[in-house]
């Protein structure tokens, strides 16, 4: 049954009331036409509860999202930038970082700029600037549920070097407040390749505001540097925008529920009757979780970032022995879900987190190196 506008409807009952399912949901393909976003293909997905704007020409990342008109994501000053403006060197990636609900980082490297085995690597990798090839877009009935799906492929490739395909399926169901992402990453070349991937979820105002908090199944965390260490005891508490604020990054090790999923959410109990944006993922696939806390004026955002590595550079992952690889023709899969909780659902989520953590607060380790050693068995 489809739950829309406070009622449940069967397929037959709903179709009696409308001329087309486009009236209540579905997907539309569009093309942006002005400024640095000119020519970028996007898909607008509507589920009745949520709407997502997916940038097909930016790795099918989610550049905007709303729940009943309430913005969920932080949008950067760059906005949506055509992939032709990509600057791979150093921090050039940030000149086209739209923020948005999700930016994918990787695939052969991500994190801080580094030089690894003589190869200069810029911030967060190339994949978010690579246009996807659409394989399927459409909606269909599955029993009494109406499913909207988007399938596509983005490829990071170079002659004599990596040939890695990311095949993404995004699925929303009418009347539901969540989106499912299923990625398959395949090394289609004939040499072993590094695999680094990070899902950069960026939550902004009004879900993020003075008094909002991060609630998660974290059991252990560490500040990335001295800047973060100075505020480490308040890693999960957020305040109003602050002039001159410097970003703070924390690495977390997450506990999981009985099905192997780790959970995190930005919660604002002052907005409406309580609202949260959550991310759910399998720790066996993504053993790292990075929190990006940025309370600046204009740059007011918290990142919830499941990943298979930390964001300190590929050279350090190689040195630590934690760098992951893809063998020739090997496929790795990643399953994630993001969604919105409102009212009593927020309290139930908090109860679920307590059941996983047994009510215990996460402990802080002394250094990043200690954190890596303690959590090595999970990676």
User: Helix coverage percent of residues?
Assistant: under 10%
Tell me about the largest β-sheet. Answer: 8 strands, mixed
Per CATH, which architecture? Distorted Sandwich
- According to CATH, the fold-level topology is Beta-galactosidase, Chain A, domain 5
**Radius of gyration over alpha carbons?**
20 Å
SSE pattern, N- to C-terminal: EEHEEEEEEEEEEEEEEEHEEEEEHEEHEH
Describe it:
With 379 residues, the protein is mainly beta. It has a single domain (102-378), classed as Distorted Sandwich (Beta-galactosidase, Chain A, domain 5). The protein is built from 5 helices and 25 strands. The chain has helices at residues 11-15, 226-229, 314-320, 344-357, 368-374; strands at 2-4, 7-9, 26-31, 41-46, 50-55, 61-67, 70-71, 102-107, 114-116, 119-121, 133-142, 145-157, 163-173, 178-187, 193-203, 213-216, 218-223, 248-254, 261-268, 275-282, 288-295, 300-307, 324-326, 331-342, 363-364. The strands form 5 sheets. Strands 8, 15, 17, 18, 21, 22, 23 and 25 form an 8-stranded mixed sheet that branches. An 8-stranded antiparallel sheet has the order 11-12-13-14-24-20-19-16. A 5-stranded antiparallel sheet has the order 3-4-5-6-7, with no helix packed on it. Strand 21 and strand 22 (300-307) form a beta hairpin. The mean pLDDT is 97.
Condensed summary:
This protein is mainly beta and 379 residues long. The protein has helices spanning 11-15, 226-229, 314-320, 344-357, 368-374; strands at residues 2-4, 7-9, 26-31, 41-46, 50-55, 61-67, 70-71, 102-107, 114-116, 119-121, 133-142, 145-157, 163-173, 178-187, 193-203, 213-216, 218-223, 248-254, 261-268, 275-282, 288-295, 300-307, 324-326, 331-342, 363-364.
